[in-house]
Structure formats: structure tokens, C-alpha cells
């Protein structure tokens, strides 16, 4: 993966834009470089923010110049091939009952598939956490079957319940808290994705792999299911 451009975007920030490739390999590399830059340039670097094709590095301009930061960024990236990021597989229970999957029937009709087919295809994939965004802890997941790709809703809902598992375009995601949203809701998990009192508030992190496993409405209501986290 090549760097397309390295640009000063503020007096305290430099943005790296990368040439895209296979989305999972691409994001794994960006996650690796984020980790490397955060560790190698501390305490000069105050934050490193991920995007789909970018990393934005924030630093203290009173301590170091743009030129020196740019040099250190290039040095760190050139040596990053010797580093590896830890990888986890997270297994999350989902109830696909239509009481919780309120758009499941519409998604099935859109694809001319049965409800069972939709559930099977969605729960049989292994997903990759590209990054967390639009609300705290919301995972953008790639790896969904192309047969499930569904347009966003034309009119977003004002309130989507916490734990809703949803589809938009070729991605799937989970709403960690109640919020507005325009994704198609096909199920719900009772796993808590965001706990603000913890040192690491988000259950899911960029670079994680994720699998959904179906549970019954009875088990969901009784909270008889649990998340599994497996280190690779």
C-alpha cells in the first residue's frame, strides 16, 4: 500500500492519504500504522485518527515542527513491517425475531429471499471491524455477503434501539446506544457494546474480527446468551 499524499491540514495536524487496495488488508495496514505512530511518536503525537483511506496525526507544534513530524512519520512507517497488531475474534449473539428485526421482512422482500435465508447469510459471515464512527462505539463492518447489500432507508428513524443490528449498502453495523439512524434493522443483540466506566469503553476495536450467532427470542428476553472474545 502506497502513500498518495501527506498534507498539513492545520498547524497541529498532518493527514496521510493512502492508495486503496483490498479493503480488509487495507484497513489492517492502517490499523497497524496507527498503532505504530501512536507508540513511536509519543509524547510528540497527541492523537491519531483513522478514516477509510486516511490517518490524521495531531501533535504539539510548540514541541516540534511540521517538517520534523513528517520525517518521523516516514521513518516510523518505513519500519512498520516488523510490527504486528493483536487480533481478536468476537462472537456476538443476535435475535433475528421480527419483533427486533423490524426491517427483516422488507430486506427479505427486496432480495426475494426467505427470512431464514437472510439470517443464514448474515450469521455465516466473518466480519472485520474497519473503524468505529458516527456515534461512540458504532462498528463499521465489512465482509457481509454481497447478496445482502441493501440501500439505506430513504427516511431515517428518529430513534433506533440500542443493540440493533443493521445493514446499509454493503456494510453491517450495530447501534451501541439509542440514536437516530437510517440503516435497515434485521436483529438485536443484548450485549453491551459501550461501557463508559471501563478503561476501554468499546467492546469492539478496529482490527477485530466478528461473528454473529442467532439466538431465540426467549433466550434474548432472558439474557441467556453471552459474548465470546477469542485472542488470535
Automatic annotation (TrEMBL):
Carboxyltransferase domain sequence ranges: 4-204
GO-annotated molecular function: ATP binding; hydrolase activity
SUPFAM superfamilies attached to this UniProt entry: Cyclophilin-like, PH0987 N-terminal domain-like
Keywords: ATP-binding, Hydrolase, Nucleotide-binding
Keyword Membrane: no
Pfam families: CT_C_D
InterPro entries documented for this protein: CT_C_D (IPR003833), Cyclophilin-like_dom_sf (IPR029000), PxpB (IPR010016)
Signal peptide boundaries: none
Keyword Ligase on entry: no
Highest taxon above the source species: Bacteria
Membrane-traversing stretches: none
Record-given protein name: Inhibitor of KinA
